[in-house]
Records
---
Amino acid sequence: MTSFLVLNGPNLNLLGTRQPEVYGTTTLSDIEEDCVAYGTEIGISVSCLQSNHEGELVDAIHAAKGTFAGIILNAGAYTHTSIALRDAISSVELPVIELHLSNIHAREEFRHTSFIAAVAIGQICGFGAAGYRLAIDALSGHLK
Ligand code: DQA
């Protein structure tokens, strides 16, 4: 069975209570459960991981090679700072969908820059928690 990794970065463990006016009230475990359930519905095995640590996210991307067909990545604030995450994605050559709950382009200027965008197959942002299902569909469509 095709497997996807849903990888969430710093502060996303606080979803539900973190700035709900920006990120909504859905918790990360709700999102993760929904991703797994949606995967089951469409015949894709979904695994989820969250870390607040850049190096752990790099390790997770490395470890994904050979196990997962692709990655859905919400790198949180590391999106705007991390050359290490970008290099990790380039190194494993797995398809990555960049995901954000909020519309980063409609927010502060520093959020308009993404180090991930150039090495992702595409970006989904602004659709809140629903974006994760959109990303699963986008990744499976890309792999067909
Ligand atoms: C985010 C957007 C980032 O700018 C921010 O640092 C986050 C969350 C989002 O999902 O909208 O932590 O990735």
---
Amino acid sequence: MDAGTITTPAVLILLGPPGAGKGTQARMLEEDFGLVQLSTGDLLRAAVAQGTEAGLRAKAVMESGGLVSDEIVLAILKDRMAEPDTVRGVILDGFPRTAGQAEALDTLLAASGQKIDAAVSMEVDDGAMVARVAGRYTCAGCGEGYHDEFKQPAHAGTCDKCGGTAFKRRADDNAETAGARLQAYHAQTAPLISYYAGRGVLQKVDAMASIAEIRTALTAIVGGLA
Ligand code: AMP
């Protein structure tokens, strides 16, 4: 893919319930287009691991499957957006998740003369989501994502990307917490689909398809942004 097809900083939002494949696809779009994946979940997990004040406040909420306060999430996102590597464009993965976050994002982007190029709703059946989430794990070294059923390393126990042999699973990727996360998605995040439809930036992708098919659909969307 020619990474030169995007001429202005692109802002792409990936919307979808847990297990829709947002993180997997965001990483591939990073490679293909030189965009930077901004996952508020990853940023929050890093804050928890570092024991920052925000991390300490977020930890219990994340473990319960609820949503961390807009105040904490916005502070973390703003800091990350201010870093120079975002200049080519960003893929927002797991943000915004509430109407308040969506409005705050509009304000933040307007202040720097940017706008949302596309908000992609990754549509997946609720029934598939728990199995997807429960089977996933990542390379502890480079973060490459894998799945017990859908995406195993070519050589068992060795990361395809970095050759690492240590893997980890998220504490909240269990059936109980996954159910709460799905509920939070429907109650607070799904309404953003009509918010972005009203702005004329919504695109839908069938996220029940294979990883490769979803990648093709997203590549067409991002490649079409000028
Ligand atoms: P994720 O990695 O996107 O599945 O997020 C993991 C957890 O982090 C979520 O279940 C929430 O508790 C929290 N989280 C991540 N992003 C947000 C956000 N934009 N707003 C509120 N909470 C978030």
